[in-house]
User: Fold this.
Amino acid sequence: MGRFLNSRIPYDAYKATASGRYFVDKSGLIDELFPALGMDERFFCFTRPRRFGKSVMANMVGAFFGKAVRAAELFDKLRISQSEDYRNHLNKHNLIYIDLSEIPRGCRNYNDYIDRIQNGINSDLAEAYPEISIDIEGTTWDILNDIFLKTNDKFIFVIDEWDAVFHMSFITDDDRKMYLLFLKSLLKSKRYVELAYMTGVLPIAKYSSGSELNMFLEYDMATKMRFSEYFGFNDAEVDILFEVYQKFVGNCMVTREDLSSWYDGYHTARGERLYNPRSVVCALTNNQISNYWTSSGPYDEIFFYIRNNIDEVRDDIALMISGEHIEIKLEGYSATDTELKTKNQIYSAMVVYGLLTYDEEAGEVFIPNRELMERYRNLLMSNESLGYVHCLARESARMLKATLAGDTVTMAEILKFAHDTESPILSYNNEIELSAVVNLVYLAARDKYRVEREDKAGEGYVDFIFYPERKGADAIILELKADSTPEDAIRQIKNRNYVLRFKGKLGEKQKYTGRILAVGISYDKKTKKHSCKVEIME
Assistant:
């Protein structure tokens, strides 16, 4: 056993995951790799957003195939044990495991970085094959080729975070080219490669425009159907985890609906919805719904992408905050740090990094869930360069305060301010535009409320419902009317019995004790006047 060759690291890492209370068995992926062993189509690259289980799956593959540790006790309990080929391959292969996100101490340049990997593998090979004269300072692929020719031994490669090098500050453009040549020399057309399993965020073709790595079959979340079930959690899997949570945790503070609204909403190429797996596990483990989207640099920062095209993008952001979808042509290879110029490129990059989700059937992007909505809210509240959108977001705290106080004069004043910004989305020619404005002027409410739009309530659909996080806070039912009156909006709230909605969702979690406010907002297209009314529901 060594650091790279037949290392026990992937086994120990996967065992820790599989022993967890909120573990989901995704070992069926291994069964799909068996037919590729030794075949031409034996090169796989899985690209997914961060926190979608890529490293967990890489550890699983390494733990299963590698000879470091006898893993039957672990895998006998999993689905892969039902495969006909299970015993034939469990811990029967030489495996080289490389985590490319790791760097040596004091690393100052590419040579320091890559020498750690080559020298480490060479040392492991020299220890494993003492009968073969191996020059540790030699070229890794030459050593592996010599071993293959003399022993007929082949190797499975598991490479995690293949694109990490492109984000390292000391890496130059020339270094990137050298790195691609390193991967090509190590893997391409090499008969000692029995299987190559590689993960990352970025598609290979983004950085490899030539033939360096064209032997890889690439599988992303947005456009490739195969393997989509192995990354992220689906509804059925979250149902099971939630049952486990209810069984073992006293005083459960998380509802099943919370998990959906906060962490669901990503789409596979098959049209299936996925949850962010890390966030689900963190919420259940901590017994608390929260934003677990931890940033790992500018590639997780929304503003990083839109800063070069604010004028075109900000109206779309305002609409997406309102729950609208934006039509685009997905460009999966646009995730780069220097060439984000068009909206298609920007949104495609944001899909790659999980900041937006993509519905392939409709050809649209949108904000997937409340966890990501929090990121967008912070963006709008803090970046003055977003112009009118930022100004309206800043007014939102005052708008919520006025609504709760029944101060309809201030409410109308803020809405007039919104209209006077003369933004393209504020023409109020349809309900979508009016709804977008209302979302912006109530943006601060998302700190204290779960805001849902077009929610089924009572005998119809209501424009907005504000579900308070604190049971004693005021709930809000908001109805919009164009060329009508706020009294008509209030009347509709009453006639359609929208108040019944609170006897469902809120009652599931805690007894509701606060007031329910009916809010009517109207806009007269001729006079350009907003009118507001707030009434306490009985």
Notes: The chain has three domains: 9-219, 235-286, 392-538.
